[in-house]
Predict the 3D structure of the following.
Amino acid sequence: MQNTIPPKTYRVKSFGCQMNVYDGERMAELLAEKGITPAPEGKEADLVVLNTCHIREKAAEKVYSDIGRLVKAGREAGKEPLIAVAGCVAQAEGEEIMARAPAVSMVVGPQAYHRLPDMLDRAVAGERATDTDMPPIAKFDALPARRKIGPAAFLTIQEGCDKFCTYCVVPYTRGAEISRPYKDLVTEAHKLVEAGAKEITLLGQNVNAWTGEDDKGRAQGLAGLIRALAQVDGLARIRYTTSHPADMDDAMIAAHGEVDKLMPYLHLPVQSGNDRVLKAMNRSHTADSYLRLLERFRTARPDIALSGDFIVGFPGETEAEFEDTLRLVDTVGYAQAYSFKYSPRPGTPAATMDGQIAKDVMDDRLQRLQAALNRDQLAFNNASVGQRCTVLVERTGKHAGQWLGKSPWLQSVWFEGKAAIGDLVEVELVEAGPNSLAGRLI
Ligand code: SAH
Ligand code: SF4
Ligand code: F3S
């Protein structure tokens, strides 16, 4: 590598989960502190951060093709950009990326990106650097203050995962479960609200495993943290994602019944409706224990919207076992859900299990599952028509005078009339589609 001119503009491209989106925002803040500004829309940036996801197949291949595209576009524009690879592919395959992609000058893991500014100085001096250390919490202490943000903000409260579901790379790419301290989170929540947030979504790979000590030294779980954040003036809404059924407790169920600011929405992945498959996945819950848990949430908060994650075609899954998943979906009636074809991840136990499922079988199962989930999502939206609710306005719509926001149940709602981004407006829901609803201002 040769010396280069320090970059003036950057672009951060985040893939994968909301934690990556949060990390992407924080990296942008670090670069802004160095006086580097976002590249204008449609212009090549001097520095590109690819904030990658490793959860399913082809993630690494996608990184290499993105790098190739950046180099080509840079050559055509007369200067190649500095490229940093961050996120979970960086953590899992950092050395390989360095060996295979000479255009990459920085590889930085999800727990080390606070060191990006230093790495950038070294990259400008012509040095290539990899940092995939996992120092707990250090990152958060080293990050700059939050900048002005939109009305719906993310706040990472917990990272990593100790669950080791047999299909999943997260425990390897994000490391062991760690919780950020209570005090830091309350402070960051205040800062987010000062910067314009009306809603905060608490993030973690396993967010309900969060534990901490409040200012009186008492042990607290996620429910205690939510109750504390509900005291923050100016904060109207609290959400959290993603949770694991095994870490749900009575306090969370009670919080959903009692804390007004906690939105009536629960994303609780189940993955499969069959107990043999769940056991092989090392999920530590059964279909029945999951359903009973959901019933308790529904008792505490009857209007709660339920969401989940599903994997079809886990090794050994039979047609009858898959049908158990369809049955579970019918029983729950999800408001919204994510479903995926099983993807073997190198280094995970499931990748070497017998009975890997053929692609056409997976395609067929995914299609049937998604048909059922789409049917239920539309039914949920249809059932909302006629209701009045608050919408948090997040952006302008396609047409002049149109606004887009979210209902308490995380549905996208558009409406026309006088409003501004960040407003909480009352609407009546008048028309439903599969992915959004139309509202009328009251
Ligand atoms: N921590 C969260 C999930 C993080 S990954 C939880 O346990 O709920 C998000 C989703 O990706 C998972 O819920 C799962 O449905 C899916 N997923 C993870 N690994 C996968 C794999 N190897 N193949 C297909 N889907 C996978
Ligand atoms: Fe992955 Fe399971 Fe941990 Fe979720 S709980 S991140 S699926 S290992
Ligand atoms: Fe992907 Fe890493 Fe999130 S693998 S889903 S970016 S934790």
In short: Residues 9-131 form a domain with the Rossmann fold fold (CATH 3.40.50.12160). Residues 359-384 form the longest helix (26 residues). Residues 4 and 124 are 5 Å apart (CA to CA). Residues 161, 163-165, 168, 170-171, 205-206, 244 surround iron/sulfur cluster (ligand 2) (CB under 6 Å).
